[in-house]
Amino acid sequence: MTPLQFTLVRHGQTSYNAAGRLNGDPAVPVHLDEVGRVQCAERAVALRAHPFDTAVHTPFVRTQESLDILLAGRAVPRVCIAEFGDVRLGVFEGRPVRDYRRWREGRSAADPPTGGESRIDALMRYVEGTERLLELEGRAVVAVLHDVPIRFIANAALGDDPIDGPISHVANMQVIELDAPALADAIAVMRARIAPASTNV
After folding, report:
1. Is 30 exposed, middle or buried (0-12, 13-18, 19+ CB in 10 A)?
2. CA-based radius of gyration for the chain
């Protein structure tokens, strides 16, 4: 049975978030900081009444730590969906966010940084991840993910450009709730965005 409700949550603040640094490699252990742990605890109170059947995280430790706090005391089965991992940044790994944004100016969404992946590459993964979400069983799923996949999915669910749509940032521990039809619509919009990537990005 396809879940009826999907609660997407960005992980809590990390030391890298606070310092404005980038991390797209799950082998680099970037942990929640004290602010992030408090954010997760506060969100746990707000979501206490939600009867989640399944919990999703990515290979990044910050999503797993966030889920530990969010679901403390609850026996909710967990699934790692690697396709939802943050954008692989190559030469920008660990560097200031402003450096990557400056490099990205004037480039298309299909251009990857050296050793990394393009935003179109990441979008392809997020389509696969979203399809896996729809394959989960139960009635309610909570997925602790990253800013970029949540943003791309949320924009697409609105019928807007996943990459350049109106939602340009998802705050730490921000919640976006979608149902199965909205996710299915998002997949279609994301696929349409990918299709012309080689010639019209």
Report:
1. buried
2. 16
**pLDDT of residue 198 exceeding 60:** no
Expressed as residue numbers, the domain containing 124 is: 5-194
Q: Is residue 151 part of a domain?
A: yes
- Phi, psi of 91, deg, nearest 5: -65, -15
Q: How confident is the model at residue 19 (pLDDT cuts 50, 70, 90)?
A: very high
**Is 200 domain-assigned?**
no
Q: Long-range contacts of range 15-23, CB-CB < 8 Å, 24 or more positions apart?
A: 17/172, 20/96, 20/97, 20/98, 21/94, 21/95, 21/96, 21/97, 22/89, 22/92, 22/93, 22/94, 22/95, 22/96, 22/97, 22/100, 23/60, 23/86, 23/89, 23/93, 23/94
Residue 175 lies in a domain: yes
Total of domains in the chain: 1
With a threshold of 0.90, does the pTM exceed it? yes
Kindly state the average pLDDT of the residues 93-110: 96
Q: Once rounded to an integer, what is the mean pLDDT over residues 176-193?
A: 97
In a domain, 92, yes or no: yes
How confident is the model over 27-48, as pLDDT tens digits? Answer: 999 999 999 999 999 999 999 9
